[in-house]
Structure formats: structure tokens, C-alpha cells
Write a structure and sequence with these properties.
Layout: H1 44-49, H2 51-65, H3 74-94, H4 104-126, H5 128-131, H6 133-136, H7 145-171, H8 183-207, H9 211-224, H10 240-243, H11 247-260, H12 266-290, H13 294-297
Helix pairs in contact: 2-7, 3-4, 3-7, 4-7, 4-8, 4-9, 4-11, 7-8, 8-11, 8-12, 11-12
Length: 298
């Protein structure tokens, strides 16, 4: 059976003759990605329709990360473990940093877990669009899935590392209390904050590749302006309000309070929550506004 292509005549004055191949193509693009003009920024229903792609991207990232690694997921435990040992020797034993009555390794590891999750999620998320240029230029799907997969995939590493922290807590004879339930909203808050930062960084990294150079430096500085290797009480009282403007300060101290049954710093957690929600909304809106140019710039 032969196929025939019927061309519908159109009135196109001064039009140049079209080749047989071009006659099969539409005059206008079938799909156009437009910048969002709504304050909402993200079509969650479209993201939900592509949820299987999100699952696939998460699984692919996990496989690629440990594909040719001899130790595999063991590296997830070794990284915070070795870092804890180094900080314990140089800051706990030699510099004599205070630990608020906690064994110094517990203080460090309980701060390293949320901080490591944040840094890895943002680092991977910022590169997610540039690293998947072949997908962006060939397929139509919500681009937000790429940084979201980079962030959610790091929850697996966080869960594996948490086992090390739990064993260390039991080794020092500490016990878990009812405040441990607060870890659920704290992990959610940490994930949202990481997602907001990743969306913003990923969109900017497409246009400004300098961000890929400066971001590791900013993350390294951020570690020492957050209570990772020291308690927030080390900061002078008159500067505590400024220090609490760092969302990771409230989140990390919240983790310690939930783990060790201490008093929560609700004002810092409130600041972290407000800042996180504002960042997610703004980052989603900015991401959607820049989405139209991704395929041209990557």
C-alpha cells in the first residue's frame, strides 16, 4: 500500500519553493515552552504526570554514582566517619572546642549529616541541567524533575549515614526520646531548603557557568558559618540574632535537639521555615521563567 502526502495549498505571497522534505514539517513548532507569568511558577499536575521519570532519574543517579565503586554505599558512611575523626582530633582534642556536654564526635557527626546532605544535594542539583543537556534538547518534560531527582536521591545517602550516627549514639550510652519524632519535619524542612537552593543554582548555572566555580567555595565557607563543628552557643549573644538568619543554623541545632532531647530553639526554626518557604517559591518561579532558554544555552 502506497502512502500519499497531500499538501493543502496556502496563500503565501513571495514564498520560496519548499523542498519535498520540508513539506512534511509543520510551519510552526508543535510544542513551545513559554515563560511562566503566574506567581505559582510550577505546574505540579504536570510534574505528577511525569513521576515515573522522576523515579527513573533517581534510580539512574544512584546506579551511576556507585557503578564502578569497589566499596559502593560504604563510601556514604566513610565520608562522614573520616571527617568526624579529623575534626575530633584537631578541634576536639587539640583546639578544645566546647561540645555542650556531648562527646565531641557526637556533636560533629550530628551536624555533619544534615550539612553533608545539603552540600551534596545542592552541588549535584546545580549541575543537573548542564549534565543532562542531551535530555533537555531532545525531550519535552518538566525540567524541574532533574534538580528534584538530584536532591531526593541524596536522601538515600542520608538514611545510610544515619545508621552510623545511631550506632555512635548507642556506643556513648545515649538514649533516644520522644523528641526524635521531630526529625521527620526537620528532614522535610532540610529537603525543601536544599531543593529551593538547587533549583535556583541549576537555573543560574545554565546561563552563568561561573557559578560552578564559586559554589564550592561558598559551600565551604557556609560550613564554618553554621554550627557543624561547634555549638551555636559559641557565638556571642549580641550576634546570635544575625547568626540565626542562616537557615542551616536552626536546622542543624534542631537536629541535635531532636536527637539528644534538648530544648528547641523555636525562633531559629521559625526563621529557617519562613526562609525556606520563601526560597522555594521564588526559586520555582525563577526556574520556570528561565526554562524557555535552557535548551538554547546548555
Amino acid at each position: 500500500m502506497s502512502e500519499e502526502f497531500i499538501q493543502i495549498p496556502t496563500h503565501r505571497p513571495n514564498a520560496e519553493p519548499r523542498s519535498p522534505t520540508s513539506q512534511l514539517l509543520p510551519d510552526e513548532p508543535l510544542v513551545v515552552i513559554e515563560a511562566c507569568r503566574s506567581w505559582v511558577g510550577v505546574d505540579l499536575s504536570k510534574v505528577w504526570r511525569h513521576r515515573e521519570l522522576l523515579y527513573f532519574m533517581i534510580w539512574r543517579d544512584l546506579k551511576v554514582r556507585y557503578r564502578q565503586s569497589t566499596l559502593g554505599l560504604l563510601w556514604v558512611v566513610l565520608q562522614p566517619a573520616l571527617t568526624t575523626v579529623v575534626f575530633t582530633v584537631f578541634l576536639g582534642l587539640l583546639a578544645r572546642f566546647p561540645s555542650e556536654g556531648l562527646p565531641y564526635p557526637l556533636l560533629v557527626l550530628s551536624g555533619l549529616l544534615p550539612w553533608t546532605f545539603f552540600t551534596n544535594a545542592v552541588s549535584n542539583g546545580s549541575y543537573s541541567l548542564v549534565g543532562n543537556a542531551h535530555l533537555i534538547t531532545k525531550a519535552n518534560f518538566p525540567r524541574l524533575i532533574l534538580p528534584a531527582a538530584a536532591v531526593v536521591g541524596r536522601l538515600v545517602d542520608f538514611g545510610v549515614s544515619f545508621v552510623l550516627l545511631a550506632l555512635l549514639i548507642l556506643f556513648y550510652g545515649a538514649s533516644f526520646g520522644s523528641s526524635l519524632l521531630m526529625l521527620v519535619p526537620l528532614v522535610l524542612l532540610l529537603t525543601l531548603f536544599s531543593l529551593g537552593a538547587s533549583l535556583w543554582a541549576a537555573a543560574l548555572n545554565v546561563k552563568y557557568r561561573d557559578l560552578g566555580i564559586i559554589l564550592p567555595v561558598l559551600i565551604q565557607l557556609g560550613m564554618f558559618t553554621s554550627p557543624v563543628v561547634y555549638p551555636s552557643t559559641l557565638v556571642p549573644e549580641r550576634w546570635r540574632w544575625l547568626y540565626s538568619l542562616n537557615p542551616m543554623s536552626g536546622i542543624i541545632e534542631g537536629f541535635r535537639a531532636a536527637l539528644f532531647g534538648r530544648k528547641f530553639d523555636w525562633p531559629s526554626l521559625g526563621v529557617a521555615t519562613i526562609f525556606t518557604l520563601a526560597l522555594v517559591v521564588y526559586a520555582a518561579f525563577a526556574f520556570k521563567r528561565m526554562e524557555k532558554t535552557f535548551a538554547d544555552l546548555v
